[in-house]
User: Fold this.
Amino acid sequence: MSGGHAMQETHAVEHPHPTAGTYIRVAVILTVLTVLEVGVFYVPVFHPVLVPVLLTLSAVKFAIVVMFYMHLKMDSRFFTFLFGGPLLLAAAVMLGLLFLFGVVALKS
Amino acid sequence: MSHAAQAVPAHYTSMGLNSRKMGFWAFIGSECLLFGTLISTYLVYQGRSVSGPTPSQILNIPVTSISTFDLLMSSLWMVLALAAVQRGDMKWAKVWLLGVAIGGSIFLGFQVYEFTSFVREGLTMQANLFGCTFFILTGTHGAHVTVGVLWMLTLWVRAMQGKLGPEHAMTVEIAGLYWHFVDVIWIVIFTLVYLLHK
Assistant:
């Protein structure tokens, strides 16, 4: 019984999720960012900075969905570790391969 | 009759975390590596095709922008479905769950349209490196969306049968994690494959 009671105490780490209003505001932000992405793609003046701008917008959208819709912002940090660890590993593998195959290169 | 009688019993780890949720986050982590590999392969071979069609000749950005917006909206409907289940509002939970399934199906419809038009224009798996890596990457993502749509329909049917209630919120939350992961992967694919093509 005491073990069960201890278990009751230990799973009190989950926090309340955002409200429907927050979810809708997040959707509006995601829509605006998507419109910006497509807009930047079509406006020639942005072409010199197309890669950093689009990568930044994409990363912001990614982070917003993960934080608010997947609740990592309010959930246990361990879930962030479970997701972020493999994500960083995947990014490192991707960068390694891009350097290895000469897709991107360091300027000498 | 009672929802509670059929609810999955919650098991918690020694860290006080729901074991199903923790296991699912570990699965999502492994999926990051799968898609990381596929995206890397696409990028490594990007611009190395010796024959056409090339991405700039064939990719349809306006159509894909609409399907991207559709998938983003389905993510909103997913969190609204979860919020409805958590507060016991099963009427709206059914509406949003069906909305997610329909949104996912529309995305798949766009993908079928895109794939068939590409094949008609000469882009197949065998045509060049772009075709091979493009179809494998976007096809794997499409397969994940298909699984997600079937999952949402299963939840919707259970809700219609009265077998889904607030005590099943974790079941819906885990389905939502999967759906949002599919969405974030598309956010990356849309930028790297469609907007930053060579």
Summary: Chain B touches chain A through 52 residues (CB under 8 Å). The mean pLDDT of chain B is 93.
